[in-house]
Design brief:
The protein has about 210 residues and is an alpha+beta fold. Helices cover about 20% and strands about 20% of the residues. The strands form three sheets. It has a four-stranded mixed sheet with strand order 2-10-7-5, with no helix packed on it.
Length: about 210
């Protein structure tokens, strides 16, 4: 009986929140970066530091309805990131992206927590979606807002696990520098234009990590 009441309360809370939240306007809502460009490392296990730990980085989000009013109480799980360039690979685990809090009375929140996933985005930027609404550039409202973010992961093949196929790709690039034929920017985790020992150490520390 108690369990039934708890489930009913949870359902009512979800329904009340969704009704109260309103519908996100994908053109009036905004997203921006605290610093640009923003370099972010991710891992399927989600065990990198917060975006903000090293450089004070975060994504600022303002969710507005069609009248330009802030939408409060959007759950922190209702946000998503992806590559603006479809040729760039990004794999996100279930529940990979969470905001730091529900949106406040102005419809604002931030994303700075570690991201669980793999892949590599070195160009083209990243778009943000709120409740499946991709935020668009105004005033035309046809193209997504592409944040100047670079995302790298030891899960180079973007399949949710750091394994031998990733090691093979990393090994091919190891010892190379920018300009070399075998240089792979996705393997240059510390962005020093070379794939060296520090990159190998980072890769080794996350080897066999996978989505939970």
């Amino acid at each position: 009986m108690i369990k039934g009441k708890v489930l009913l309360f949870a359902l009512l809370l979800v329904l009340a929140t969704s009704v109260y939240a309103g519908e996100v306007d994908d053109c009036l809502s905004t997203v921006s970066l605290s610093a640009s460009p923003l370099h972010v490392l991710i891992c399927p296990a989600g065990d990198f530091q917060d975006m903000g730990d090293d450089c004070g980085g975060y994504i600022m989000i303002t969710a507005l309805d069609g009248s330009g009013n802030g939408i409060p109480n959007i759950p922190w799980t209702d946000f998503w990131l992806d590559a603006c360039d479809g040729a760039q690979a990004l794999y996100l685990c279930a529940g990979a992206v969470t905001a730091d809090s529900m949106t406040n009375s102005l419809g604002q929140t931030t994303i700075s927590d570690p991201i669980s996933g793999g892949g590599c985005i070195t160009s083209g930027g990243v778009f943000v979606a709120i409740q499946n609404n991709q935020i668009l550039e105004s005033p035309d409202c046809t193209d997504p807002v592409c944040l100047d973010m670079e995302i790298k992961s030891p899960d180079l093949t973007a399949n949710g696990i750091v394994d031998l196929t990733d090691f093979s790709q990393f090994g091919n690039a190891y010892g190379s520098s920018s300009g070399d034929t075998n240089y792979d920017d996705c393997c240059d985790f510390n962005n020093d234009n070379a794939v060296g020992l520090s990159d190998f150490s980072l890769f080794g520390n996350h080897y066999q990590h996978e989505c939970q």
